[in-house]
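Re: export button greyed out
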Amino acid sequence: MTQKIEQPALRIRIVFGEIGMIGPGKAELLELIAHCGSIAAAGREMNMSYKRAWELIGTMNAMFRDPVVDSTRGGPGGGGAVLTEAGRQVLTLCRSFEAQSAQAGAAQLDSLQALLRDQPKP
Amino acid sequence: MTQKIEQPALRIRIVFGEIGMIGPGKAELLELIAHCGSIAAAGREMNMSYKRAWELIGTMNAMFRDPVVDSTRGGPGGGGAVLTEAGRQVLTLCRSFEAQSAQAGAAQLDSLQALLRDQPKP
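Workaround output, generated via the alternate export path:
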């Protein structure tokens, strides 16, 4: 008996020429900041250093017209943080793009999956 | 005067659980092998070593039921190589998936682009 994995996952990067790109890492960071209310906590969920999380936010703030995160630096736990209106828009658009892609390309994903080698059942 | 970049580019990875993934690098390698008729030449086009190109092909051959490249190892220029029927199918499906994604998510891409910081004209 063999089985195929259930559903392929998409990891999509959108590259805006030299301005920058946004992909799964930045989108997940925004999502976790919205969920955790803290950059430090969001970074920890991703096994990412606080410094690295701040770097990614800085990159996004430089890419977009408005900042994506509103934060209170420092304090216990690294301070609180929320997504700005721009941050929420960016996150929603990324997630919506991914969903549209998966839906529009479902037939191609199925066909690719059908070409995979059968996997032994665990 | 300011301007926005013209069209965002998509870099899509399709992850088939633990079986493996296919993304822009593997798709481009298949495309260049089809175009160049040689793994060595395709690798050179991508600034990729012959060894690395072979590794990627080996990974794909292990992922899919049928080999994706039919090659004559060695000889002058590293031997000739062509895509197999499976290789052509994989490449076509990847390119088709990308095209479907871009089309289905065009509104989201436009909205994201509208949120970008204006760029000074070069």
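Residues 9-71+78-116 of chain A form a domain with the Arc Repressor Mutant, subunit A fold (CATH 1.10.10.10). The button fix ships in the next patch.
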